[in-house]
């Protein structure tokens, strides 16, 4: 890959956090295109489970609790809607965190295990608190002059992977994400705009371009996280080494 940075092998020393922030938007996207091309199968083995569960979840909820007149009061969702969001958060947030780590390892040119996205449920409560606090802060920012909310919306994107990779609490993960993203905020904002346009364009084209777009975005955000925060060595080993079956002797 032409990122200008060498990728580490599993177990090798990990680059210090914050030492690779001299990227360009075009360079990141070009590296993502080159890095995901020819590896779409691996990318979709990780993406497929996450996307599939979202579709199943939403489909099941629509069947079991379809919207009815009066189901919303004063703009607030009804109780089934709140329960659905809570359950989805507890189930999907650890998978989203795992997908971030999968993408960062994938962007290094390594071969992460697709099943590794399911291995972060011990952090479910922390991740739920991260997302609740993030949404509250973003909402407050949007209510007060809008711009603070947009700033936080971009800055807090890495709070979820930071919580599991760096073993941080909710507030510490959010603070660290803001510290990492602020120096590159305009580049991150531009990448978010481009990602939104790519996704919208793909939907207009019947979703067919998503076959390539989603792996490119997986690589992009994984690469960004690894450049700014630096994956911990124990995390790299956890997602690349096969899990040993219980009862088998360690060599």
UniProtKB/TrEMBL annotation:
TM annotation in the entry: 47-66, 86-104, 125-144, 150-168, 189-214
The keyword Transmembrane belongs to this UniProt entry's keyword annotation: yes
Keywords (A to Z) from UniProt: Membrane, Transmembrane, Transmembrane helix
InterPro entries found in the cross-reference section: DUF975
Residue ranges of coiled coil: none
Transmembrane helix among keywords: yes
Protein name as it appears in the record: DUF975 family protein
Source organism per UniProt: Mangrovimicrobium sediminis
């Amino acid at each position: 890959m032409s990122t200008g940075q060498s990728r580490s092998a599993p177990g090798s020393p990990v680059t210090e956090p914050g030492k690779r922030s001299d990227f360009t938007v075009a360079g990141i996207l070009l590296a993502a295109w080159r890095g995901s091309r020819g590896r779409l199968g691996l990318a979709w083995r990780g993406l497929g489970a996450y996307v599939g569960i979202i579709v199943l979840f939403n489909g099941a909820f629509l069947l079991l609790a379809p919207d009815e007149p009066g189901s919303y009061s004063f703009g607030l969702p009804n109780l089934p809607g709140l329960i659905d969001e809570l359950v989805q958060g507890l189930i999907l947030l650890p998978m989203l965190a795992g997908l971030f780590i999968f993408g960062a390892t994938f962007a290094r040119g390594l071969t992460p295990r697709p099943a590794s996205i399911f291995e972060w449920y011990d952090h479910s409560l922390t991740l739920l608190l991260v997302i609740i606090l993030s949404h509250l802060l973003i909402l407050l920012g949007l209510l007060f002059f809008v711009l603070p909310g947009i700033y936080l919306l971009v800055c807090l994107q890495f709070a979820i992977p930071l919580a599991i990779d760096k073993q941080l609490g909710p507030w510490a993960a959010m603070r660290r994400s803001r510290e990492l993203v602020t120096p590159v905020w305009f580049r991150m904002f531009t990448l978010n705009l481009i990602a939104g346009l790519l996704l919208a364009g793909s939907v207009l084209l019947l979703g067919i371009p998503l076959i390539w777009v989603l792996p490119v975005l997986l690589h992009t955000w994984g690469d960004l996280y690894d450049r700014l925060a630096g994956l911990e060595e124990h995390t790299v080993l956890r997602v690349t080494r096969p899990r040993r079956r219980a009862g088998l002797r360690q060599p």
